[in-house]
Amino acid sequence: MLKAAGVAAGATAIGAAAAPSASAAGYAHPGLLHTGDDLARMAAKVKAGAAPYTAGFAKLTANRHAQSGWTPNPQAIVYRGAGSPQNYAILYNDVHAAYQNALRFHVSGDTAHADTAVAILNAWSAKLTSVQGSADRFLAAGLYGYQFANAAELVRDHDGFDLARAQKVLRDVFAPVSESFLKDHNGAVVTNYWPNWDLAALACVLAVGIFCDDSTRVGRAVQYFKHGAGLGSVKNAIPVVHDDGLGEWLEAGRDQGHALLGVGLMGTVCEMAWNQGIDLYGYDDSRFLKGAQYVAKWSLGGAVSYTANTRRKGAIGGWSGTETAADAAGVDPAMVRPIWAMIANHYAKRRGLSATYLTRAAAKAAPEGGGGDYGPNSGGYDQLGFGTLAYTRDKAKDPSAAPRPAASASAPAAPGPRPQSASTPSASASTATAAATGAKNGDLAATGSADLVGWTAATGITALAGGLLLLRRRGKVRGESPQ
């Protein structure tokens, strides 16, 4: 096996991508957000001076995280939201440095960048033992777990990389926190948390499953995406499809920044699954396309419909209430996040489908940067980015072709973790009590939004005291039965 793209038989060669390897579970590597073909395309296009790849690569090389020699600062315990010290920024800066250096290596062939990525990841896998804090610990585990896995996937065959230790930290530190959230939602009623919480956890579980060749985890993530009870499953995140073909994004009733985060995370889940032969992009008549188009149009300043809904909040057996989202929140058309190139290129180029709003949003955001280009706080590091470089592609010759590797060679559809519902609490009495206490001090219902720089659009949400779960599981307007 070749060590990595750009390195063959001990020689450095731009564009010589690593041959993907198939694991015993049927997973291809590299095969998270980028395949071997993707990496070869990026390198060849940049070497040829092709637009817009060169502009995307220039964004990468200009980022301070993408410089070889980055010195990591690993921590034994990472805290977010509570605990001492709140040091999660150290982790996300180091993980983005690892990813950006690894990506730069694949495009340029400069092994100094691969060595830097390896050093960062090895340092963290040798020291990190847990992710702790308030409810925001679930965001930390989900976001930085999927990102760590993607950075590691790009150097998994590079000299000196400790693959076994990286797999261990992902399996033992990141994934269990995310799996716990999908199972019992921090002791809360299942609708307490908005879609992006589920989606961060899903991205982590899926990425860890693929990276660690764990078909059970992959199967659970896929099943949750399709049928999970939480608000991050596709039919709950996009509860209504209107006659104009746009799918109402639930979190548009909250604010623009979190809606963009959710779309970016769902796209991340779909792309990683696609690269293993699992088509979540097309699931339920391309429901995600309809939801992403909705958010793109709305974020560009267009008018969209929004069906008022009320969701139940609070702890099982403890504090409870409801919250009603009455209309789509206000938007700032200048707000940009690096999420659109991946989604637009899939639907318009891979599948040949009309995606007008997505392509407009992608063009407006181009060339997309990454962590460090969108502000210093955590919101600027939620996506790995660099989509102009990584996902720009020519139109597929056969847009109806199934993703490869074939789904039959990938993970079986194992039953997913059953999320906790209001009628069937599974938390222990001590967990429920802790959750109720957390609700009083802001832990249970923490939004993770305190430092999302610039994400302060009006929410359009009215809080109501008490009440029953009124969130409707709505299907398509065109006669689809409710799910």
Characterization of this structure:
The chain is mainly alpha-helical and 483 residues long. The protein has 15 helices and 11 strands. The protein has a 3-stranded antiparallel sheet with strand order 9-10-11. β3 and β4 form a beta hairpin. It is globular, with a radius of gyration of 21 Å. The N and C termini lie far apart (46 Å). The N terminus and C terminus are likely disordered.
In short:
This protein has 483 residues and is mainly alpha-helical.
Question: Which band does the percent of strand residues land in?
Answer: 5-15%
The secondary-structure element order is: EEEEHHEHHEHHHHHEEHHEEHHHHE
Mean pLDDT: 84
Poorly predicted runs are 1-19, 406-443, 445-483
State the secondary-structure class: mainly alpha
Number of alpha- plus pi-helical segments: 15
Radius of gyration: 21 Å
Give the biggest sheet: 3 strands, antiparallel
Question: Separation of termini?
Answer: 46 Å
Assembly annotation: single chain
The best one-word shape is: globular
Percent helix among the residues?
A: 40-55%
How many DSSP E strands?
11
Strand order across the biggest sheet? 9-10-11
List keywords for this structure.
43% helix; 15 helices; two-stranded antiparallel ribbon; globular; three-stranded antiparallel β-sheet; mainly alpha; disordered N terminus; 483 residues
Indicate the topology.
Blueprint lengths: L6 E2 L2 E2 L8 E2 L5 E2 L6 H12 L5 H10 L14 E4 L7 H21 L2 H17 L2 E4 L2 H19 L8 H22 L10 H17 L3 H13 L6 H4 L2 E2 L5 E2 L7 H19 L8 H17 L9 E6 L5 E6 L14 H11 L5 H10 L21 H5 L37 H13 L19 E4 L19
Parallel strand pairs: 5-6
Antiparallel strand pairs: 1-2, 3-4, 7-8, 9-10, 10-11
Helix pairs in contact: 1-3, 3-4, 3-5, 4-6, 5-6, 5-7, 6-7, 7-8, 7-10, 10-11, 10-12, 11-13, 12-13
